[in-house]
Amino acid sequence: MDMTSLFDVSGKVAVVSGGSSGIGAMMARGLLENGAKVYITARKAERLMAMAEELSQYGECIAFPADMSRVEGIEAFAAQIAERESKIDILINNAGANWNAPLESFPEKGWDKVMDINIKSIFFAIQKFLPLLKAAGTSEAPARIVNIASINGIRNSGMTTYAYSASKSGVIHLTEHLGAELAPSGVNVNAIAPGLFPSNMTKELVESDAMTKWALGQIPHGRLGKPEDIAGTAIYLCSPASSWMTGQTIVLDGGMISTA
Ligand SMILES: NC(=O)c1ccc[n+]([C@@H]2O[C@H](COP(=O)([O-])OP(=O)(O)OC[C@H]3O[C@@H](n4cnc5c(N)ncnc54)[C@H](OP(=O)(O)O)[C@@H]3O)[C@@H](O)[C@H]2O)c1
Questions:
Q1: For residue 31, which of 24, 36, 109, 216 is within the disulfide window of CB 3.0 to 4.6 Å?
Q2: Global confidence as pTM
């Protein structure tokens, strides 16, 4: 093994859901700049196409709009990729949503919306992309699935985002379950549990001085996550360096949940 290529993802074909914004766009850029070809998806076509154009300065980035919270949407997206690729090396299940409401009035609509995109979509995206992933992976060089969880799936955030926390705990457990199940098929399944990164989802919090001051006080590193933090962890999980690792969740939070 050549140790200088441990983190090499060049020539890989990757799919990143929710690649039009935030963390998904950061990981897509990291993969592109390191020589991967990246397909991105999201529902809002205009923003998605604009992001694909922006990311194209770093490499080959192709966008297809899809609603990943519905099985029909996932199937249609997977069919579009299968028309162009005989295999895919990397599937990053990143698309996600949140809903904040008091316990007494938390609506069924909010619960279903969050569960459908944060957890149901991960299971069915894995199901529908599995033939393409199996076609790419071997036990020596496995294909990769990276699920985006959250530190709020590990510890109680204290916020009234009940469905979000439950869905993200589910992501961590599903990752462990499928990691063991798919290893013999040459597919690794791992997750990242991010702490606070600037994105559309965290816009209100990050743009409020008081909230940012509060959040930074909780993070031992004293700063929010940067694109290179999430891209670096994603590249590790997609590269030869992590070939023997599966079923695991990496916490990436500047030390936030390690504090008492
Ligand atoms: N930012 C953080 O601090 C943080 C921390 C922990 C975990 N996370 C997780 O990181 C992931 C990305 O979040 P973010 O913070 O980057 O948020 P974001 O900027 O709001 O991005 C969310 C992405 O998901 C897409 N999406 C949402 N619903 C979709 C659907 N039904 N079908 C297809 N795509 C859909 C959005 O595009 P459309 O709206 O156009 O569909 C967008 O591209 C989420 O899973 C989130 O829970 C974020």
A1: 36
A2: 0.98
